[in-house]
Amino acid sequence: MAVDLLLGLQWGDEGKGKIVDVLTQNYDIIARFQGGPNAGHTLIFDGFKHVLHTIPSGIFHKTAMNVVGNGVVIDPVIFKKELENLDKHNIDYTSKLLISRKAHLILPTHRLLDAASETSKGKAKIGSTLKGIGPTYMDKTGRNGMRVGDLELDNWKEKYDALTAKHISMLNYFDVQVDYNLKELEAEFCKGIDKLRTLEFIDSEEYFSNAMKNGKTILAEGAQGSLLDIDFGTYPFVTSSNTTAAGACTGLGVAPNRIGEVYGIFKAYTTRVGSGPFPTELFDEVGETMGRVGNEFGATTGRKRRCGWLDLIALKYAVEINGVTQLMMMKGDVLSGFETLKIATSYNYKGKEIKHLPYNIEPENVTVNYTEFKGWKADLTEMTSAESLPKNLIAYINFIEKETGVPVKIVSVGPDRKQTIMR
Ligand code: GDP
Ligand code: IMO
Ligand code: MG
Asked: Ligand 2 mean position to 38 CA, how many Å?
C-alpha cells in the first residue's frame, strides 16, 4: 500500500489535527514526520478539546497505530505533559504509540539557545515558538544531536552532559541575558526521559516497510505549512524542517514512489503567527472579524494570529511543490456574513503583474491584485451535506478548483469532528 500525506498549504494552523482525526477511521497507521512541539493540532469531539504537539492526531481512535517518525524532534518534557493529558481521558496509548529511534531529542539547553537567538535578533526575530526547534535541527545537521536511540546506550548521560556543556558555552556568545536553573531543567528532562522510556522505540523505516508489505494503510501527518518550509517557505521566517511532501520521505524513510494521495489543507482565508511577510494581511475591521470569529489564537503559544484574504498565488505554489491530489477547505463558516470576499490572484512585482510566488514578497516588493466574490449570509456550522452549502460558497470553491486544477474534497464548517462535509 502507498503512504498518503496530509499537509498544510499555508503558514500552519490550517486544521490538520481535525482532519487527521476525521480520516483516521480509514487508516491503520498515522505518522508524524517532521517538526516538534512547535506544532499545536486541535481536535474537538464529544464535547472535549484536545491539543496535540508531538503525538499524531490518530491517538484517540481505538485501533490505529501512531508513530513519531525519525524526522520529528521530541522534547521529553512536553511529551510527558501530552501523555499525562491523554491519561486524564483514559486513552491507552502504550500499545498504540511508537517512537523512532532516529528522532532527535530537544534538550533543555536547546530551548535556552532558541530564546537567546531570538532575543539577540531584536526586531528581526523570527517569532519562534521558542520550543528549541531551530537549535535542535542545527545539532542534527551539524551531526551533534542526541537521538531517542541514544537513550538505550549506557553512556547516554555522558553524551547529554557533553552536549549541554557545549550549549552553555554557546549561550555566552549571545550578548543577551537568559535566566535559567540548569538543575531544575535537568530534573524535569530526566522525568520526561523516564516517561518516554515507557513507550516502545522502533526502527521506524523498517516498521513502515513491513507495514506496506502487509497491506497496512498509512497516513503521514504534516506539521506547520508549506510557507514555513525551510527551503520553500518565506525564509528566514520559516521553521527548521521540510514541511512539504518530500519531508515525509526523509522523515519516515518512505521512498517517493510509495507516496499515494497528497491531501492539501488550507483555510478559506489566511493566517500567520509570528513574524514574516504576508501580502494579503488585513489590518482593518475585516481582519479583526476573521480573527474573532475564527478564534485565531495559536494552539501552542496562545499568540494572536494575523489574518488576511486567501492568497491563491501562494496556494497554487504549495499545490505544485507538494503534488497535491485533493484539497480540503477549512473554516468556510468563518467567512459567513461578509458582503464581499476577496482572493489574491496576482501580485505587482518589479513593475510587472505576476501570478507566481516571487523570491521576495515583503510589502516593499509586492502589492496584491484581488478577484472579488459575493459573500453568503447562511450559518454553515449546522450543515451536513454538500448540497446545502450556499451557492456563493460553491462559486468560491469552484474558482479555487479551476485555478489550482485540484478538487476540493472536504469542506470543514466548524471545529468539531462532525462539522465536516465530504464532496
Ligand atoms: P493545525 O495546527 O493545522 O492542526 O490547526 P490548529 O489546531 O492550530 O488551528 C486550527 C483551529 O481552527 C483550531 O482551533 C480548530 O479547532 C479550528 N477549526 C478547524 N476547522 C475548523 C472549521 O472548519 N471552522 C472553525 N470555525 N474552526 C475550525
Ligand atoms: P502547526 O503544526 C503555525 C511558526 C512560528 C514562527 C516560525 C518558526 O500547529 O500548524 P519555530 O518554533 O519553528 O522556530 O517557529 O514558524 N510556526 C508555526 N505557525 N503553526 C505551526 O504549527 C507552527 N510551527 C511553527 O510561529 O513564525
Ligand atoms: Mg496549529
From this structure: 6
Residue nearest to atom 21 of ligand 1 (CA): 415
Pocket test for ligand 1, best of 14, 21, 23, 42 (most atoms within 8 A of CB): 42
Q: Which residue(s) pair with 41 in the sheet? A: 52
Atom from ligand 2 closest to the CA of residue 273: 26
Cell numbers describing residue 118:
531570538
- Among 121, 140, 228, 304, the mutation site with the greatest number of ligand 2 atoms within 8 A of its Cβ is 228
Is residue 326 within 8 A of residue 264, CB to CB? The reply is yes
d(CA 23, CA 219): 9
The pTM of this model reads: 0.97
Instruction: Give the pLDDT of the chain (423 residues) as one tens digit per residue.
Output: 899 999 999 999 999 999 999 999 999 999 999 999 999 999 999 999 999 999 999 999 999 999 999 999 999 999 999 999 999 999 999 999 999 999 999 999 999 999 999 999 999 999 999 999 999 999 999 999 999 999 999 999 999 999 999 999 999 999 898 999 999 999 999 999 999 999 999 999 999 999 999 999 999 999 999 999 999 999 999 999 999 999 999 999 999 999 999 999 999 999 999 999 999 999 999 999 999 999 999 988 999 999 999 999 999 999 999 999 999 999 999 999 999 999 999 999 999 999 999 999 999 999 999 999 999 999 999 999 999 999 999 999 999 999 999 999 999 999 999 999 999
Residue 370: burial class (beta carbons within 10 Å; 0-12, 13-18, 19+): middle
Question: Using CA atoms in the order 140, 183, 83, 220, what is the torsion angle rounded to 10 degrees?
Answer: -10
